[in-house]
Amino acid sequence: MKSPIGSSEIRVMIRPLEAPGFEPELIPAQLFKRIFDAFLAALIAADRELHTKRLSSQFFVSHLAYGSCEFGIIEKQKSTGASGGSGIEFLRRCAGRVYRSDYQILLRHPRLMRAFDRIVKAIDPAYVVLVQYNDTELPLDAFFCRQVDRVGRLNEAPSGTDVWFAGTAITSLEGRLEAIDYRGPVWKGRLTLFGGEAQIECVFDKSKGEDAYNPFGNKAVCVTGRAIYTGDSQLPERLQVLTIEGTVRAAAAISIQGSLSAASAGDWEGGLDYFH
């Protein structure tokens, strides 16, 4: 039985992108080592941003799961209070803000930015990496890797000419939701917007269960959620779904030609115009 995640702990799950069903698969040892080393280095970098070497935290392996390819790291702080701080909490805060397109946080902490670059380089596109905390989780997938890459581009060539919004906003979008992919630790789907071919990637809350979303697959829907705008387009690149409901759209255009034709003599009934 999986033990609960502590407040001073981080757990990392590695799963194949195309895992058949829910059967656990073996992970290459070199891939596991790269990801583990990258996360440990990131935690040390986060700790160094908060503490001097004398007061730096210590990190220990707290969890290993063979079948599900998970590892956990727990932090033991030498100091607490106003002058201290948690390296795990700081890493979590920075990762969450980069995920939501707040790129400036890493630009202010170059050491941590290098650590995030190392994590991105350690991730294999054929696998999904899910970071879990005691009360939330964050997928380090292709979207997250692109977000970290955007930070690097800003650092290399700062520009004040960006015209699109970068950040998050609660919004509603209508379109056709394609089939929902329930495989792996992150449930995803694509919303094709009405009136064009633009598609928005949607991420669904697994805690609601598949039955909450099955009625909407391959249907016209209105999706409300937390939209993440990256600054590269006026449309969001990802939508974290909060609510979803079906919509009704006409299958074909309705002809109103008869209603616009002139009324003929005798088209009167009860003193009112009568249109056939």
Describe this structure in words.
26% of the residues lie in helices and 30% in strands. The strands form 3 sheets. The chain has a 5-stranded antiparallel sheet. It has 276 residues and is of the alpha+beta class. The chain has 2 domains: 9-156, no CATH class; 166-246, OB fold (Dihydrolipoamide Acetyltransferase, E2P) (Beta Barrel). The chain is globular, with a radius of gyration of 25 Å. The chain has helices at residues 29-50, 87-99, 104-107, 110-122, 142-156, 257-260, and strands at residues 9-16, 58-65, 70-76, 127-132, 137-140, 166-177, 187-193, 199-204, 219-230, 238-246, 268-269, 272-273.
Name a few traits of the molecule.
276 residues; 5-stranded antiparallel sheet; disordered C terminus; OB fold (Dihydrolipoamide Acetyltransferase, E2P); 2 domains; alpha+beta
In short:
The chain has 276 residues and is of the alpha+beta class. It has helices at 29-50, 87-99, 104-107, 110-122, 142-156, 257-260; strands at residues 9-16, 58-65, 70-76, 127-132, 137-140, 166-177, 187-193, 199-204, 219-230, 238-246, 268-269, 272-273.
Distance between the termini: 72 Å
Mean pLDDT: 84
- What structural category do the secondary elements indicate? alpha+beta
N to C succession of SSEs: EHEEHHHEEHEEEEEHEE
Q: Give the count of helical stretches.
A: 6
The count of strands amounts to: 12
- The radius of gyration is 25 Å
Give the total of domains.
Answer: 2
Give the overall silhouette.
Answer: globular
- Sheet with the most strands, sense and barrel status: 5 strands, antiparallel
